[in-house]
Amino acid sequence: MIKKYLLNKRTVISFVVSFIIISYIFLKINLDELILVLRNTNIFYYIIAFFMFYISILIKSYRWKIMLENIDISIKLIDSFKIYFLSMFVNSLVPAKLGDVYRGYLLKKKTNKSISLGFGTVFIERILDLITMITLLFFSAYFSFKSDIPKDILLSIKWGCIFILILIFSIILFILFNKKIKIKRFDISNILINFEKGLRVIDLQSLPTVLFLSYIGWIVEGLTVYFVFLSLKINLGLLFSIFSDLASSLLTAVPITPSGLGIVEYALIYILNLKNLDYSLAFAVLILYRGITYFSIILFGSVIYLIESIKK
Predict the structure, then answer these.
(1) CA-based torsion, 142, 231, 61, 189: positive or negative
(2) Which residues span the domain enclosing 271?
(3) In Å, how far are 47, 122, 180 from 126, measured between CA atoms?
C-alpha cells in the first residue's frame, strides 16, 4: 500500500515544496555558529527528550486501545502501539494524512474489521486531539505571553475553534441522516455504516479517561521541547515549551507535505523568534526537535515496517 503512493507525482511535489522551504530557512544560518551550538548539546537532556516523545506515543496508543474496546475490538497494547506508530511513519512519507487511512488498513489486517470502521475511530481521535491541543495552546500561550499574545496565534486559535465546531456539527448531521439515506450499492452503504460505528467509539463512561489521556499525552509530548531546550541551555520555561510543541504539531495536520515537513520548520523558527532567540540557536532547536519527531519516526518506522513485512 505504501509503495503505491511513495513515488507518485503528488508525493514527489510535496517533498520538493518541503525542500524549498527548508532551504530558504537554512540560507540564513551561520554554519560555524550552528556547529558550535550543536557540539555543546547536553546528551543526557536530549535522551530524556527522546523518551518523552515516545512515552507520549505510548499514552496515545493506549488511549486508542481504550476507544477500540468501546466498539468491541480488543487488541494488545503492543499491537496498538505498532499500528499507531506505523501510521505516523506513513504520514511522514506521504502527504494528505494517508497514514490515518493506513491505520484503518492495519487494524483490518489485525482484527478483520473494516477499514472504514478503523478510520472512523481515527477521525474521532483527531477531533479529540484538536480539542485538547487548542485548549492547551490557549492556556500555554496566555501564560507564556501574558496579555501580549501575538495576533497570529490568537487568530489561529480562533479558526481552530471554528474548525472543531464545524467538524462536530458535521458528525452530528452524518449520524442523524446516515441511516435515513438509502443507498442502493451495498458496498458503499456498508462503508458508511461502519464509519458511523467508528464515530461512536467514545461513550460517557470512557470519556473522562480518554480526555485525561489526551491531555497527559500532549503535555508529555511538550516535555520533548522542554528537554531539547535544556539540552541547549535555553531557559524558556515549561509552558512555552508546551506551546511550541503544540503549535508545531498542529501544523503536521496540514496535508500539503508529509507530516508538515517544511511548514513545521518554518513555524517553529517563527515561534522561537517571538522570544528573540538567536537564529543559530533556534535552528539548533529545530534540528534536535525534528531529529526526534520526524527522522526517528522514519528510522524506527522503516525497521518495524520491514519486520512486519517479513512476518507476512
Answers:
(1) positive
(2) 29-306
(3) 28, 6, 26
